[in-house]
Amino acid sequence: MKLKTSLTTLVLLLVLLFSSEILIAQSGTLNVNQDAKITKLLDLKKSLEKDNKLHEGFTIQLYYGNLSRANSVIKDYRNKYSSWRASIEYETPNYKVWVGDYSTRIEADRALLEIRKNFPTAFPLKVSK
Fold it and tell me: Cβ atoms within 10 A of the Cβ of 84, count?
């Protein structure tokens, strides 16, 4: 009986000894040396995500053709609407007037209902980024 008690006590002491060493061994500090370019890349990614340039989505095309007419169309659009951004995109040999960045086709269709009141030839376009 005395041997059993002594053995149990020894096991408990060993467990306490090893568990305290494990706790001490896990209390350390970690230094991370990070390249400064990583921060710049993360900032660039955030700005591209903000402008919806990293995902596929939809836009509305108002016009394609020559540059002078594209400038006229975008000026007319900006006078009538300010809630959706507009841009002129170039694809050889034509310039395109695109309006809005929409995540889903439904969002583009809702905007299209309003835009077609002034631009009847407008149509939704799936854009791959």
Answer: 17
